[in-house]
Amino acid sequence: MIPGVVADFSQDTWITYVVKAVLIVVFLLTSVLFAIWFERKVVARMQLRPGPNWHGPFGLLQSLADAMKLLLKEDLTVTRADRVIYLLAPMISVFCALLVFAVIPFGPNVTIPFTDYSTPAQLTDFPVAVLYILGCAALGVYGIVLGGWSSGSTYPLLGSVRSTAQVISYELAMGLSLVSVFVMAGSMSTSSIVDSQTRLWWFLPLAPAFVIYIISMIGETNRLPFDLPEAEGELVSGYMTEYSSMKFAWFFLAEYINMLNVAAVATTLFLGGWRAPWPLSAIGDGMLNEGWWPILWFLAKLWLLMFVFVWVRGTLLRLRYDQFMTFGWKVLIPVALAWVVVLATFQWLSLAGVTRTQLFVGIGVAAVVVFAVIWVWPEKKEPAPRRAAAGEFDPFAGGYPVPPLPGQHLPRSSRRTGTSAVAQSVDHSEETR
Fold this sequence. Notes:
The chain has helices spanning about 15-45, 60-70, 85-100, 130-150, 155-185, 190-195, 205-220, 245-270, 280, 295-315, 320-350, 355-375, 415-430, and strands at about 105-110, 120. By secondary structure, the chain is mainly alpha-helical. Mean pLDDT is about 80; it is low at about 420-425 and about 425-430.
């Protein structure tokens, strides 16, 4: 047994680890193919379209046809690219994405059919497994920034800078939302966190952290409405613009594997992991939480969160980059940090012997004081908006510059006025001569 870890890997041999690793890779590759078909089909139903329906039953082989198309396309390499880094960047993205599922528990101990061999439905685990997940996600950013830089072109470089800033910003909010789980579970081991949710899943008492994580996971994976590596006014694909064939497919594969990664982390840390939901968990004294059944519950929760990705994509409009970054730095990160402080304070008070009644009374008094301060706080008077002269149009009246409509004209620029005055003085001096 590993200290601080619930899962027991003492009976696993190197053959067991190799078989588990191969099964995880096969699971991720097949899940990506299914996720592409799933996304197209769900969005098509939302938009009243048939979706993939030609290749295979219900269009299930459409993703396989797309993969073969990328495999057989002409592989081009940009002349000005740094060839080594240009080829290494998509490999970094895929490799880091594949590492996360190594510590995700699919279920408890399972017995291999026709044998007496029992092993955890998990490749490995250790006391800081969640930090390992965050580290793998952080290293994956190098694939993005190196892919844009090594292309030797302006548009991929700009796309990589935008995407890198986006991923780093929303990883901060994601990490802060996970701290509250560490505080409640008392561990960073994924198997221990799942074990701590035997009676109550953490998404209920930690609802603010769960909402922050859901928003952050969409932004961190560059999915709509946060699909901002691509420029607003150019038909380019951001850091992937100069990639084609299988090198482009590796970036595409890494994006969908990262979607599965963040959904699996949310399932493990907030939704009880492989545990059955409440009505089913009470059947047969927890019989559905044993054997191979938990893998089914884990996959059901995983694909429920994948549906959230698709649902958000088919529902919300794309944000501007400044709105997205402002929301991340000025809303998500401060709220997540404040929630961690409040939760840690409550945990400290409970360990210090403060009863729930005293705690609720203190919260009520604090709420009354805050409400009173807000009520008596003097209202700040906004300065009167600058009024444009008669017939002139103020482009900044709404706070964001807009072009004038037909019949409107912009006020005269001070620079232009100064130039006109100089020109008039020169003409006057010439007339005087």
